[in-house]
Amino acid sequence: NAGVTQTPKFRVLKTGQSMTLLCAQDMNHEYMYWYRQDPGMGLRLIHYSVGEGTTAKGEVPDGYNVSRLKKQNFLLGLESAAPSQTSVYFCASSLRLAGGHEQFFGPGTRLTVL
Amino acid sequence: AQSVTQLDSQVPVFEEAPVELRCNYSSSVSVYLFWYVQYPNQGLQLLLKYLSGSTLVKGINGFEAEFNKSQTSFHLRKPSVHISDTAEYFCAVRMDSSYKLIFGSGTRLLVRP
């Protein structure tokens, strides 16, 4: 039982390049999330998904796109990377969307945009 | 807007000493409260959570937290810390019936021998 996994762990991009971050979970969770973590700012929600084929915007969605073609996978895309997108990206999943249900986090992807 | 404040960005403490990490939130409705720990180069792991009932919540690794509704606080405590407790600690709040999990900016606990 791997929980939540993320690929890749590290990536360096040049401004304007594109890339896709992959998140996979094996807990059969309906809900998945993408966050970015910046120093002194905690975690901020980029996009989330309430089920296969559905996605919604979070707090900071600009410059990112997501897709949830399979229940276990949640992809985060950067079409044209900018230095402001240098950050650590975390994927999470949960059994329920609201209430006291915890979110389970992946190990993170450290992205640097030059 | 709802917010979570962790006033201390870094807390240095000697091994076996007690520690308290502070968390305050702003909300006028019922909330669910969480503390997560992030060890170096790892993802976040749940330490404990408050849903309802007893205001003193016990978590993993000897940590506990107390919910104080009147002061809108959820401070994390441990009576005796170990070197292995060195990590970043995040307080998070979810308002009742909301999907948003709002995180504080984090407190880095540095345990020295």
State the order of secondary-structure elements of chain A, H for helix, E for strand.
Answer: EEEEEEEEEEE
Strand content of chain A: over 45%
Ranges of chain A where pLDDT stays below 50 over 5 or more residues in a row are none
pLDDT < 50 stretches of chain B: none
Global Rg of chain A? 13 Å
General form of chain A: globular
Query: Largest interface, per-chain counts?
Result: A-B, 21 and 24 residues
| Number of DSSP strand runs of chain A | 11
The number of helical segments of chain B is 0
List strands and helices in order, with pairings:
The complex is a heterodimer of chains A (114) and B (113).
Chain A lengths: L3 E4 L2 E4 L5 E7 L5 E7 L5 E9 L2 E4 L7 E3 L5 E6 L8 E8 L9 E2 L3 E5 L1
Parallel strand pairs in A: 2-11
Antiparallel strand pairs in A: 1-3, 3-8, 4-5, 4-9, 5-6, 7-8, 9-10, 9-11
Chain B lengths: L2 E3 L4 E5 L4 E3 L2 E3 L4 E8 L5 E7 L5 E3 L5 E5 L4 E6 L8 E9 L6 E2 L3 E6 L1
Notes on the protein architecture:
The complex is a heterodimer of chains A (114) and B (113). With 114 residues, chain A is an all-beta fold. Chain A is built from no helices and 11 strands. In chain A, strands 2, 4, 5, 6, 9, 10 and 11 form a 7-stranded mixed beta sheet that branches. With 113 residues, chain B is an all-beta fold. In chain B, 0% of the residues lie in helices and 53% in strands. Chain B is built from no helices and 12 strands. In chain B, strands 2, 5, 6, 10, 11 and 12 form a 6-stranded mixed beta sheet that branches. In chain B, a hairpin with a 4-residue loop joins strand 8 and strand 9. Chain B is globular. In chain B, 37% of the residues are buried. The chains are: A mainly beta (114), B mainly beta (113). Chains A and B meet through strand 5 of A and strand 5 and strand 6 of B.
Structure, briefly:
By secondary structure, chain A is mainly β.
Can you tag this structure with a few keywords?
heterodimer; A: 52% strand; B: 113 residues; mainly beta; 0% helix
